[in-house]
Amino acid sequence: MTDLLRVRDLSTRFFTEEGQINAVENVSFTVEAGSVLGVVGESGSGKSVTGLSLIDLVESPGKITSGEIWYNNADLAERVEGDQPEAVDGDFVDLRRLSAAERRSLRGSAFSMIFQDPMSSFNPSITVGEQIAEAAEVQRRASANPRSTRSRTQGYGLGKMLLDGVLPDRSYTSEESWDRAVELLERVGIPDPAERAEEYPHQFSGGMLQRAMIAQALAGDPDLLVADEPTTALDVTIQAQILDLLADLQETMEMSVVLITHNLGVIARVADRVSVMYAGEVVERGTLRDVFDDPVHPYTKGLLGSVPDIDQPGERLEPIPGNVPDLVDANMPDRCYFADRCPKAMTDCLTRPPEYEVSDGHRARCVLAEREYSEADAVPDERLAGPTDDGAGPNDGSRAPDESTAPDAEVSDD
Amino acid sequence: MTDPLVTVDGLEKYYYENDTLLDRLTGAEPEAVRAVDGVSFDVREGETLGVVGESGCGKSTLAETLMRLREPTGGSVTFDGDPVFELAGDDMDAFRRRAQVMFQDPFSSLDPRMTAGEIITEPLAIHGVGTGAERRERAETLLEEVGLSAEQIDRYPHEFSGGQRQRIGFARALAIDPEFIVLDEPVSALDVSVQAQVLNLLADMQAERDLTYLFIAHDLSVVRHISDRVAVMYLGEIVEIGPTEEIFENPQHPYTKALLESVPRADTDERDRTVETIRGDVPSPRNPPSGCSFRTRCPELIQPPWLDLPQAAFREIGEFRTRIENGDIDVDLRWEGVGDPDREDRAAFVDSLYEEAFDTGLPAEEEETVREAIRALADGDRETAAATLRERYRSPCEAIDPALPAGDHPSACLLNEQPEDVETAREEWEADHDAPKAGAASE
Ligand code: SF4
Ligand code: SF4
Q1: pLDDT at position B28, please?
Q2: What does the pLDDT read at residue B86?
Q3: In this complex, do A307 and B185 lie within 8 Å of one another by their Cβ atoms?
Q4: Is B130's pLDDT higher than 80?
Q5: What is the DSSP string of B261-291?
Q6: Among the atoms of ligand 2, which is closest to the Cα of residue B396?
Q7: What is the Cα–Cα distance from A346 to A249, expressed in whole angstroms?
Q8: How far is B142 from chain A (nearest CA, A)?
Q9: How large is the ipTM?
C-alpha cells in the first residue's frame, strides 16, 4: 500500500500563562492511502491537537514547533520542486516547509476535517444547502485561484477551516454548486436532499446534522479526512449509522481517514491501523491486530483492561491507577511519562525510552519491547512521583489544551 | 427474592409548553412533553437496577422525579412502604436521609468556593448531624474510604481531577449513611481508565454497606458490568426489564436488540460483525407516535393481517409513507426535478419518485398501490396519497399501545406476551379493519 502521509517527529506546544504545554511530543506515524488510521487516547493525550496539527489548524497560543509532514501528491511535488527543492522528496512534499498560503490552498481539496459538534460548524442563519454549496463553490474556484476564497460561513468551525475569508455578497453560490450540495447530501444518506437543503441547521436532528457536516467536508473531494470524535456526541444507534457511513465513504471515495477517538470500540469498528497516544506521545502503533491482540505497552494493556466487555462481563475491572500528567513542560519528568502509573516500571525506565520496533510496522515506546520485566529491576515507589491510586499529585486538576473535546460530556439527557 | 425497597407505579412527568400567560391569552393550547410516560418497576433491596436509554428517553427525569426533586404529574413511588409523594415534615426528612442522589457532575450545582470537606459534610449540616468537629472527622474517614487522602479535605473542587471529583461526590452521597443511592451517569464524563476505578469503588462500597443502587447510564457495557437487573427506556417508557444476563443474552424487545447490536465492540473481530443499524432518529416526546412508541424505527414492525411482504419491502413502504405523511416531499420541487414545470407528464413524475424510493422490487399489487399514491401526490393531493398508503399498510403497532406486563422479564412489544386487554384490543382492531383492495383505495 502506498503512503499518503508520513508524519515525522511532530511537536506542537502551547505557550500559556501556566507555562509551556507539550501537547504533542515527537509524534511519528504514517497514513496509508485509502485506509483508516485510528488515533486513540484519553483526555489530554494530545490526540485532538495532533489532528489539528496535521491540517495546520493549530491556533495561538499553540504552535507546531518541529517536525515534518510529508504528503504524497505528485502534482504538488512538481509545482513546488522548482522553487523549493528541499521540500520535495520524490512524490512527497513536506507541508511544513510550504508557505502558509500554499498550505491553506490545500484545505478542502487535500485535507478536510469533521468535529464532534456539528452545530458549531454551521451558521444558524443560512440554509444547510447554501453552506455546503459555498464549500463546493469555494473549492471549485480555489482550484483555479487560491486567493479568491471568501465566504460567509467563516467563523463556523468547518466553514471557517475550508474558506478562511469573507464573502462579498449573497449570490456567491452557483446553480452548479447548489446541485453539488444536493448530491453530497444524498451521498451522505439524507432522504429528500433537495428539500432538506432548503432547511436551516436547527431543523436537522443531531445525526442528520452530523451527516450534513460530513457532506460539507467532502465538498472538495479530499484525500484525507480528519474526524475528531465524530460520534462522541451521538446516541449509540445513531453512532452505528455514522460509522457505517464513514466506512462506506472512505471506501467508495478512496480517501484516507484519521479517526480520533477515546472509544476503543469505534476504533475496532473502522480502523486499519492504530496509534495509541498518552501524554502527547504515540506510545504504541501498529495494525489493529498488533495493538488490540498483541499490545506491548502497559498503557495500551491498561486501556484495553479498563473497558467493560459487553459480551463477557468480568467480575472486576482492572483500571490504570492514577491520572494523566498535565503536560506542562516544567513538570514533565525525564523518564518514561507513564512510569508513575506503570505496574512494570524498572530502573531502565528512568531514562526516556525511544520508540522500539516490536515487529514490522508495530512500534512501542517502552523498554518491554526489548526486554522482559524483572522484579529485581523494579523501581522503588519513592523514585516515582506521587501515590498511585488516583492520588494527590499537585497538578491533578489541571487540563491539557485538548481536553475539552475529549471525554464524552454529551450524556445528560432530557 | 428480596423485597422491593422502592416501588414505582405509573410514574408520569409531563412538562407543559405554551403555558405562559400570553399563550393562554392568545388561546395557544399547552403542549405536553411526556418526559416520563407511565413507568412502573421495583428496586429490590441490595440490588443494582440499571436504567439505560438514549438521550431524551427520560431516564434522568425519572431519577429526579423519583427522588422528588421534581413534582410528578402522575403515579406514585413507595420507599420502604412509605408513599414518597405524600411525605411531609419528619417523614420527608427521614426519606431525604435514607435516599441520596449523585449526578454526572456533582459540582455543577455546588459553590466552587466550598472545600472538599464542606461539600462532603453539607448533607450532615443540613440534617443537623454531629458537631463541626465530628463532621470534619467523618469527612476525613470518607475521603480515605473513597480512595483519596484525608489531607485533601481543605482543597477546592478545581484542584481535583474529574475522577477525584466523582469520588468526592460519592463521599458526599455516602456521608449521611443512606440505604439507597440514585447514580445518574456517574462515570460518563470520565476517561475509561478512571471510569474503571470509580466503577470498582461503587461496587466495593455497595458490598461493604449493603447499598441499593439505581444506576442510570447510556453506556450499555457499563450497565451490564454493574447491574443485577436492567430496565431499557425509550421515549419516556420502559420497553423491557429483566435480569442483566437475560436482557443481554436474550433480549426480547426490538429496541433492546437494536441497542445492543449498535454498540461497537473493542475487539479485532468487530470489523466483520454485521450490524443492522436502525434508521432514523428518536421522535420528539412532544409528539410521540401513536401506538408503540418505537414503531417509526422498528425493524420488526408487524404487518396487517392481509399482507405478507418481505420485511425489507414493508419497511421501505413504511419509510415512504412517513415521508409523505410528514410532508418531507416537496411536490413543486419534484416537478422541477423532472423538468416538467407545466406538469403534463404525470407518468414521468411517478416513475422518478418511485424509482428513487424503492430499491427492492415490490409485488405488482403493492407497486400499483404505491404508484396510485404517487399519482395523487403529483396532483398536489397529499391527503389522498397518505390515505391510500395508510389504508393498505397500516400496522397494528400504530393502533395498539403495547404494555409492559408483570413478570420477571417482560417486554412492551406486541410480538411478545401481552396482557389480556392489549390482546383483545388487537383482535378487535384486526376484526374492524378488512383488507382494502390493492391499488383501488381512492377510486
Ligand atoms: S518504559 Fe517502563 S515505565 Fe514506561 S511503560 Fe514501559 S515498562 Fe512501564
Ligand atoms: S410493538 Fe410493533 S413496533 Fe413496537 S416494538 Fe413491537 S413490533 Fe416493533
Answers
A1: 66
A2: 94
A3: no
A4: yes
A5: HHSPPSSTTGGG----PPPS-PPPTTSPPSS
A6: 2
A7: 46
A8: 15
A9: 0.86
Predicted confidence band at B64 (pLDDT cuts at 50, 70, 90)?
Answer: very high
> In chain A, positions 221-240, which contact chain B (CB-CB < 8 Å)?
235-240
pTM of the model: 0.88
Quick check: A320 contacting B, CB < 8 Å? yes
pLDDT bracket for residue A267 (50, 70, 90)? very high
Atom number in ligand 2 closest to CA B397? 2
Give the orientation angle of helix B254-262 with respect to helix A236-252, to 10 degrees: 50
> Taking all residues of chain B, what is their mean pLDDT, rounded to a whole number?
90
In tens, the pLDDT along A331-390 reads 888 899 999 999 999 999 999 999 999 999 999 999 999 888 888 888 876 666 544 344
Q: How far is the CA of B426 from the centre of ligand 2 (A)?
A: 13
Ligand 1 centroid vs A338 CA: distance in angstroms? 6
* Residues 6 or more apart whose Cβ sits within 8 Å of residue B128: none
Structural contact between residues A26 and A332, judged by C-beta atoms closer than 8 angstroms: no
Q: Which residue of B has its CA nearest to A194?
A: B333
Is the predicted pLDDT of residue A146 greater than 50, yes or no?
Answer: no
Identify the residues whose C-beta falls under 6 Å from ligand 2. Answer: B 253-254, 292, 294-295, 298, 300-302, 397, 402, 413-415
Q: Give distance in angstroms: CA of A354 to centre of ligand 1.
A: 11
Mean pLDDT of A62-75: 94
Give the one of B54, B196, B278 whose C-beta lies nearest to A306's C-beta: B196
Atom of ligand 2 nearest to the CA of B402: 1
Q: Does residue A166 carry a pLDDT above 80? A: no
Taking every pair of Cα atoms in chain A, the longest distance, rounded to a whole number of angstroms, is: 74
Contact between A252 and A80 under an 8 Å Cβ cutoff? The reply is: no
Q: Whose CA is nearest to atom 5 of ligand 2?
A: B413
DSSP letters for A216-234: HHHTT--SEEEEESTTTTS
Q: Quote the CA–CA distance of B403 and B222 in Å, as a whole number.
A: 27
Residue A200, all three cell numbers = 436551516
> What confidence tier does B403 reach under pLDDT thresholds 50, 70, 90?
very high
Across B28-42, average pLDDT: 86
A230 pLDDT above the threshold of 70: yes
Return the pLDDT at B23: 66
Residues A269, B238: Cα–Cα separation, whole Å: 29
Candidates B161, B164, B234, partner chain A, best to mutate (most A CBs within 10 A): B161
B158: cell is 478545581
Sheet with B31-44: strands ordered across? B31-44, B4-17, B74-79, B82-83
| Gap from B285 CA to chain A (nearest CA, Å) | 10
* Helix residue spans in A46-172 (DSSP H): 47-54, 74-81, 100-105, 128-144, 157-163
Grid look-up 396510485 returns B372
Contact B191 A407 (CB under 8 A): yes
Task: Give the number of residues written for chain A.
Answer: 414
The 8-class DSSP code of residue A340 comes to G
C-alpha cell of B203? 461496587
- Say which of A42, A264, A407 has its CB closest to residue B266: A264
Average pLDDT, chain A: 84
Mean local confidence (pLDDT), A260-275:
96
B321: DSSP letter? H
Neighbour count for residue B233 (Cβ, 10 Å): 25
Residue A402 has pLDDT above 70, yes or no: no
Peptide bond between residue A61 and the one before it cis (omega within 30 degrees of 0): yes
Q: Which atom of ligand 2 is least distant from the CA of B416?
A: 6
Q: Classify residue B25 as exposed, middle or buried by CB count within 10 Å of its CB (0-12, 13-18, 19+).
A: exposed
Q: pLDDT tier at A147 (50, 70, 90 boundaries)?
A: very low
Kindly identify which residue of chain B lies nearest to residue A303, measuring between CA atoms.
Answer: B193
B31 strand-pairing partners: B17
Q: Does A166 touch chain B (CB under 8 A)?
A: no
